[in-house]
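Appendix B, Record 12. Input sequence as logged:
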Amino acid sequence: MNKVILMGRLTRDPDIRHTQGDNPVTVSRFTVAVDRRFRKNGAEQQADFISCVAFRQQAEFMEKYMHKGTKVVLSGSIQTGSYTNREGQKVYTTDVVVDEIEFAESKKAADSYDANSQGYVPPQGNGGGFSDGDGADDGFMNVPDGIDEELPFT
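Logged structural output:
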């Protein structure tokens, strides 16, 4: 089975191309920076930079809505290949061919992301989101005590 699921940020705007011919296809090439799961003691967060390619509807979606710094979640498969460059050297490639891609954060959270410093600035105040009652906007709604009997699941 060849299945990949990634979550990370676009390192630059997607490179969009349109093939020629009777059945033109939109192709989007981009790189996703994916944080590594663990850090070494005291070290900064490390990331892997994964080359991806999307075709047709996914590529058109990327062209319309995605840009540098957008946090995405995608699934696809790993594809390897090779070609000979202009200097006659054989170059090996590894790409994730995207089957599905979607936003991994809200527009509000994306607007709070400072792409210049590659850091996240938390939103100030409630801003219309859910709150736990102490003014913190953590994205979760406060469920009052004693309501368990009314919930359709437990």
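The mean pLDDT is 81.
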